[in-house]
Specification:
Helices cover 38% and strands 36% of the residues. It contains three helices and five strands; from the N terminus they run ββαβαβαβ. A five-stranded mixed beta sheet has the order 1-2-3-4-5, sandwiched between helices. It is globular, with a radius of gyration of 12 Å.
Length: 101
């Protein structure tokens, strides 16, 4: 998976591309920890439009991101999911935990 970031004012967008599974846990953690270190970041948007696979370890990584973001008073938003990825998030009740759009 490839992860790119783009900052706009108090928001940073992490764009994920490819398979989101345990093999990317270090890269994903580094990406969001770097984002949370930026002064003034209040929102982290995950653009998942190019994610073609998501497993249970990815769900765990999303929960850890949400926990770390809340600790810094930042909000997480999962955006632009494919129907398959959105279905997995819905089955796992992620809309009750992390904002999805």
């Amino acid at each position: 998976m490839n992860i790119t970031s783009k900052q706009e004012a108090d928001k940073i967008t992490l764009t994920l591309n490819g398979r989101f599974d345990f093999s990317v846990h270090r890269d994903f953690r580094t990406s969001y920890e770097d984002a949370l270190k930026i002064t003034g970041i209040k929102k982290i948007a995950l653009d998942m439009s190019a994610v073609d696979y998501l497993d249970s370890s990815a769900l765990g990584m999303l929960l850890l991101l949400n926990e770390r973001a809340r600790a810094t008073n930042a909000e997480v938003n999962i955006a632009r999911c494919s129907p398959g990825v959105m279905k997995i998030l819905e089955i796992a009740n992620f809309s009750k935990i992390i904002k999805t759009s």
